[in-house]
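Give me structure tokens for this 227-residue protein.
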Amino acid sequence: MSSRSTAVRARVSRWTPPPGRTLRFLGGLVLCALAVWLSLQVQLGLAPWDMLHAGLSERLGLSFGLVVILVGLAVLVLSAALGERPGIGTLVNVLGVGWVIDRLLATSWLDGLADAEVWLRVPALVASVVLLGVGAALYIGAAFGAGPRDSLMVACHHHGWPIGASRVGIEVTVALVGWLLGGALGLGTVLLALGTGPVVQLTFRVLGEQPPSRRVHAAAQVPQNVR
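Here you go.
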């Protein structure tokens, strides 16, 4: 093999992430999408961020989808101000998770769950909390960049807050604001607000990891010959 082809292969490898990290990232996003879909199917209360979206939509007279986009952009700006820059994973998160959720909602799977007994729906809700926390830890740990709302959690962590406490603090604050704006509070709101953060932190602990630092995140996306 010529030295030129070796150099080309080396440059390509710098741009190409390891397959295991890519699979972990995509798998984590799929788990997050499954979690959101499951939490919607049980109909036991909106997630904290969706409470905020619903409240703002009602007050501002904007569509729910437009409010989701505008809030996401605002959170990204706030996260960037705190030092957490978006990555390619941020874009994939915004587009990919929503696409998977839409595909799942278009199916008839679990359509009867909302009419089931509460003792069946509550375990499904708890499962959605676990899936969301595990999925978030997996895809954030892959260091491609966090989604808008998760990036705020990671930014708080990099400013000295434990990852679990960061998530709980953000979710409770968002739920409170959403409730004040007229969003509907339910059991799902409470469990998602209080449970997701501890699950994210526990998953990182089980994996023996922490959310990637800004230096690691940047190194994961910039080729060696550019740094």
